[in-house]
Every structure is written in structure tokens, then in C-alpha cells.
Amino acid sequence: SAVISQKPSRDICQRGTSLTIQCQVDSQVTMMFWYRQQPGQSLTLIATANQGSEATYESGFVIDKFPISRPNLTFSTLTVSNMSPEDSSIYLCSVPAGGVETQYFGPGTRLLVL
Amino acid sequence: GNSVTQMEGPVTLSEEAFLTINCTYTATGYPSLFWYVQYPGEGLQLLLKATKADDKGSNKGFEATYRKETTSFHLEKGSVQVSDSAVYFCALSDRAGSNYKLTFGKGTLLTVNP
After folding, report:
1. Calpha distance A61→A45 (Å, rounded)
2. Do the Cβ atoms of B44 and A101 come within 8 Å?
3. How far apart are CA A42 and CA B5, in angstroms?
4. Measured between alpha carbons, how far is A31 from A74 in angstroms, rounded to an integer?
5. Which positions in chain B touch A48 (Cβ < 8 Å)?
6. CA distance B85 to chain A (A)
7. Dihedrals φ, ψ of A87, to 5°?
8. What's the mean pLDDT in A82-111?
């Protein structure tokens, strides 16, 4: 299985500020996924990040709010912009492994916006 | 669109009790089905999967059978342990264009008491 790390593991931020979350994988992967897990809720896919092209965003998520970078095949960042308390969530990245249908997840970044 | 419905939690059991967590799905295609587990303070881990009808996924004493006729993928374990306390997510993966997109249920919190 892939080894995935995320930074930071947790943060407390003030409303109106932005936070960039990093995701590092120990092997090259074509796709990386970013999810949000709001308190007591399930995971919701934010976007798919492909190296060398623009990220593909799911309904309800826009690039201005969640810009994504994918500079190479082992790394991606997700920025949560102009944060509000409603952005308080766990943000997870994942990569396909063992066939594209199976995904392995990073440990997550716990964000609290005050 | 695709959706996953899990039984409402929380579920509280005594050690060595039998566990069933119900999961049903709606999908337009022929999805693969997964159970993911999130232990306290940890990231999401793949528990088991099944890729076609009548397949049985199994791992760590847990098992689930892909039932196409009832669109279900119920998770079972014959004898739970305290260490099984976690949140369990049922998910499906279906092809969307060139990607495989995961859709999650809301999760079921399991607490096992000694």
C-alpha cells in the first residue's frame, strides 16, 4: 500500500485567512483526490488532481475557494481560502492503489476555524 | 446519482457479540463496494472490498457479501473485540469518465465494551 503523509496534521485558524495543506506520497501516482469530512458527516470528494492539468472539481466546490496544485506525481496541495467556521473539517487526500478503484487515504488534516 | 445508505449509529456491543452493520446502495452502473474503517485519531483504512456480484470480501474477521439482487453489502463479524471500536464507512466506486469516484455512506460508530 502507498504511504501518504499530510501536513499540517491539525491547525486552528482565524476566519478570513487561508491554509495550505500538503499531501506527499511515497510513489508516483497519476491521480490524487481531496476529500472533506465535516464533523459527524461522511467524506465528500472536493476535487481530483491530475499532474499537468487543472484539477476537476465536484459540484459545490470551486477553484477560487479550494485551489489545488499538483506540481509532480508524488505531491499535491489544497488551499482552503478565506476561511469561515463552516470550513472546520478534516481534509484528506487519497491515491488509487491496487487498481484505480481502491483508494488509500492520508491521515488527514484537522482544521478548526474560529 | 450514486448513493450509499448505512444503518444509523451509534452501535454499542459487548465483547464477543455478533456485529452486523447494514449498507445498501444505489448506482447506475456496476460498482465495486468497500468498507473503510477509521480508528480513533487515525486516518481512513480500507477494511475489505468486493468488485462483483456474489463476491465476499473479508479481512480481520470481518466479511461482507456483494448482493446485487438486494443492492446490499452488509458488514458482519462473529465476535467483536474492544479494538474493533471505530467508525465504519460503506462506500462504492463507480466509473465517472476516466476516473473512479468513491461515494461514502455517513459512517457508523461502533463501540465495543469489555
Report:
1. 9
2. no
3. 11
4. 10
5. 99
6. 16
7. -85, -5
8. 88
Cβ-based neighbour number of residue A14 at 10 Å: 8
Supply the pLDDT for residue B111: 97
Burial of B95 by CB count in 10 Å (0-12 exposed, 13-18 middle, 19+ buried)? middle
CA distance B46 to B35: 6
Query: Residue A8 and residue A60: Cα distance in Å, rounded?
Result: 25
In angstroms, the CA A79 to CA A81 distance is 6
> What CA–CA distance (Å, rounded) separates A50 from A56?
8
| B51, amino acid identity | T
User: Pairing relation of β-strands A10-13 and A109-113?
Assistant: parallel
A17/A19 Cα distance (integer angstroms): 7
Give chain A's radius of gyration (CA, Å). Answer: 13
- Contact B24/B11 with Cβ under 8 angstroms? no
pLDDT value at position A25?
Answer: 95
